[in-house]
Amino acid sequence: MPSLSVFDLLAVHDFVADLPGDWIHRLAACGHPVYYGAGHRLFREDGTADRFWLLHKGEVAIDFYVPGRGDIVIEKVGPRTLIGWSWLNVPYRWQFGAVVAEDIRAVEFDAAAVRNLINEDPEFGRELTTRILRVTAERLQASRHRLVELYAYPTVSP
């Protein structure tokens, strides 16, 4: 069975499938298929954000470092989602970390190349940025819930 092209992988991915075909073709030129096994760290908080991924199979744990507690998983995300959004904003440093929890197959993108596409086509840029902001809001909300879960202590009456 022949493997799918990057365009084909994007054409069936929830994050971009409904974009115009020419936009998907341009985006496909910036990516390549990857496989990473469980335990592989995609990135660490404050590292250089130079890539991102559209996940097709597997699971990734989004985490951040808490002094005295180590890496705290705030959310696990599965297929059909975006991994990484910090590449979109200067200074291009990861706000969270990510480690493969279950072997993944994904399309990995060169962030600088996608930023160039965004700059060349403002309409494409607005659409992609809107979608990424949606993911960002979801991840920040998940962080908030996880922090409440970790640090909310029952109040003790005097």
User: Averaging pLDDT over every residue, what do you get?
Assistant: 91
Order of helices and strands: HHEEEEEEHH
> Which spans of ≥5 residues are poorly predicted at pLDDT below 50?
none
Describe the sheet with the most strands: 6 strands, antiparallel
CATH superfamily: Jelly Rolls
Number of strands: 6
Q: CATH architecture, please?
A: Sandwich
Q: What would you call the structural class?
A: alpha+beta
CA radius of gyration: 17 Å
- Return the CATH topology: Jelly Rolls
Our count of helices gives 4
Domain unit count: 1
Distance between the termini: 69 Å
The residue fraction in helices comes out at 25-40%
Q: Choose one word for the global shape.
A: globular
CATH class: Mainly Beta
Strand content: 25-35%
What's the short story on this structure?
It holds the Pfam family cNMP_binding. The chain has 158 residues and is an alpha+beta fold.
Provide a descriptive summary of the structure in words:
Helix content is about 35%, strand content about 30%. With about 160 residues, it is α+β, with helices and mostly antiparallel strands. It has one domain (about 5-150): Jelly Rolls, CATH 2.60.120.10. Strands 1, 2, 3, 4, 5 and 6 form a six-stranded antiparallel β-sheet that branches. A hairpin with a 3-residue loop joins strand 3 and strand 4. Helix 3 (about 110-120) crosses helix 4.
Which properties best describe this structure?
4 helices, alpha+beta, single chain, six-stranded antiparallel sheet, Jelly Rolls, 158 residues
